[in-house]
Amino acid sequence: MNPPQISNRIIPFKARLFPAVKAYVPSVVVGDSVIAVEGPASSSNSTVAVNLSSPSLAQQERNWASLLKDSSQLEEVGEPSQHVTGVPFVLIPDENIESAKEEFKDFIFARFHGDSPVMGRIIGVVNAIWARTGPRIFVHNIGPGIYLLKVSNPRTREILLSRSMWNIAGFPTFVAPWSPEFSLEVPPLTSAVVPVEFRQVPYLLFNKQSLSRLATAIGKPVKLAPETERKENFEVTKVYVRIDLQKELPSKIVSGFSNGREVLISVSYPWMPVKCCECGHYGHEGNRCHIKSLQ
């Protein structure tokens, strides 16, 4: 059998597929509202105009430039004078501080009393608890034990501010809305909102009115724990109470009824701010007492 004959004639691939189409290089001309497309050289009308309703590329670039100018571009404002030390002196007017209030509306103050965790620990804990679904909470250190938290989510910000104190990595942390009048000085820690657990409470007392009366014997009632509000467990009643840290807290209370019956209720405190055994102050342990080290 004779082998097949191979032709030496090479036919361009494009010509074989599209023999009637002449090759051309299209060009696009972008104007304010028209794109002109150059057609094949064989066509009688070599230009096709297409009217666009969307903005042109030039207009889009101008729009983006205006947005950047509004959000981040700076300008010359005021004229610095010379300080008595010889360096430039810039006076910040009160209206600049007022305008900052709107820009800092997403921020929350967080203050640790006594010792505080390292920065990385704080960032990890606050984002693991309150930003698991985003957006991320940014943490800024502005002083010893004092931080600014940028909380963009309004619901998360509301939850954080629903209590004045949280336990972050085992350290008592007080939170407050951002304010230009916020003082960086650490006031004495005299009260705190803590969880309180009651046991041997009759199940008929599992309502807000009765539990508020029991909590008032400890301090100022704040709210019911979710599991107590849903009546999931009648063995343990959990509430949040603002307590006076300068007073001794009871471990038992007696509830009485109009028929003369009395019930002994035990009280426990699952978490309390750290108290120093050396100086008696809250917020640090005895082995880290700064007052003791000065003596």
From TrEMBL:
<feature type="domain" description="DUF4283">
    <location>
        <begin position="101"/>
        <end position="185"/>
    </location>
</feature>
<dbReference type="InterPro" id="IPR040256">
    <property type="entry name" value="At4g02000-like"/>
</dbReference>
<dbReference type="Pfam" id="PF14111">
    <property type="entry name" value="DUF4283"/>
</dbReference>
<dbReference type="InterPro" id="IPR025558">
    <property type="entry name" value="DUF4283"/>
</dbReference>
<protein>
    <recommendedName>
        <fullName>DUF4283 domain-containing protein</fullName>
    </recommendedName>
</protein>
